[in-house]
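Risk register update: the risk of archive-format incompatibility is retired. Evidence:
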Amino acid sequence: MPKPIRALAALLLLFVPLAGVTQEVSERTLENGLRVIVKEDHRAPVVVSQVWYKVGSSYEYDGITGVSHMLEHMMFQGTETRAPGEASRIIAENGGQENAFTSRDYTAYYQQLEASRLPIAFELEADRMRNLQLREDRFKKERNVVMEERRLRTEDKPRSLTYETFVATAYQASPYRHPVIGWMDDIRNYRLADLKQWYRTWYAPNNAVVVVAGAVNPEEVFRLAEKHFGPLEPSTLLPPKPRAEPAQRGERRVRVRAPAELPYLIMGYKAPVLQTADEAWKPYALAVLAGVLDSGNSARLTRELVRGRQIAAAVGAGYGLYGRYEGLLTLSGVPAVGHDIPALEAALRDQILRLKEEPVAPAELERIKAQVVAADVYAKDSVYGQATEIGRLVTVGLDWRLADEYVERISAVTPEQVRQVANEFLSDERLTVAVLDPLPLGDTPASGSDMSEDVDAIH
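Archived output:
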């Protein structure tokens, strides 16, 4: 058996014992619409409790962009019975950790505690699900915090600013064109009434999923959920309008001039995700394709453009399978000394052309699969990772069972399928290119990039 295939087989064997100690997922829906999903894992006496709300920046509209993230901040500012910060203090006193994050398609809150303290997390989350106290003085203070967060994370980071501009250029109608943190002018002009309306509409049991993973008994978790969340009233939900992105009809380009040390290039191709693909195998083939380009030092981009031809000082590729709307397969990089952006772009285009014309060699493909599978296996080794994978899937409208099929589906991808998705989706008609054109630094900070789709709150 060739070494890469042996490596993949070994990883699949590694996955088997992990599955053996992790029990089957159990779920129940309460009368008020709250969905509760439990995954047992008794390897350590800990539990991760997460509450996922099906609302994020892709639910927002012009004028209130970033309101989901703003509300996430306000969720730590007290309820009708608890003062600001009191819930966080209670979690800390019980030896736990907690935080939250907002993304395009969801907002999630989580606690990690010793398993017997799960009732504490449920009591606190149920309280702020329907009893949040939104006061003008706290709102104004937290709005200033969010404005400063945007300055630090985006406006003072040239690569992040370029990425934000790139996404807003790639999408015209899709709500994915808006940054998760929101546009600065929208943040500056939030009204407390905007947050109250958002909270009343979306923060309700019939728009939430509670995910629990760890050393727990499912029936006990369901009883706790019924006790704490069961009495909460649901809200009236109207499904958001589709807001589908129209077909792109040609390459789009944008330049960003900002103080920076180095130029920077981003190329992105419109690509389907599991929710939008016409055939289920295509997103998995795209994930493998991205792995062929960028899955460590042995992948093509680093091996050939950084170490080999030395055209790039740094280079990478990315693609995500999960989302409510069509996504992007991206390539990005910084040219090496003596080379410029056009040379780097030409080199990246050569890599795309090669994927279209030449099937990936079986040995190379198996090695890439092994690395992709390894990342998935290691993620499942954490109870937090297991809970998060379930929450992410269900809040974008997918079945949590897809998490258990990931290794099998990645392993089934063929060289011809990789070539087929390259030809179907990596075309100029789907391409957007953004270039950071450096200006002198002056007094403006120029720190590195932060291109995560999630925005974690700083509390």
